[in-house]
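Fold it.
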Amino acid sequence: MRLTAEQQYQIRHCFEQVFEHGSIYLFGSRVDDQQRGGDIDLFLELEEHERLFEKKIKFLAKLKRQIGDQKIDVVFNLDPSWPIEQEARKWGIAL
């Protein structure tokens, strides 16, 4: 996994502050130690989807203040038939 311990901590901490409950997974190129570059792809598994857009913006703003302005993609568990959600579930690493 190509995230520092501090980045992992900050991702979890910001997630808990904004969403309170749920699970967060890293997927995509940052999972593979052999690759270089790439954005931070996060899959958020939530029980509640109320005010999702507002919470996503708040989460990203908090996170970028902590780890710097990096490209971060967020995918939510909205439709298990979506290929991106299937990929995140298959290859994601829990943070």
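The first strand starts at residue 23 and ends at 27.
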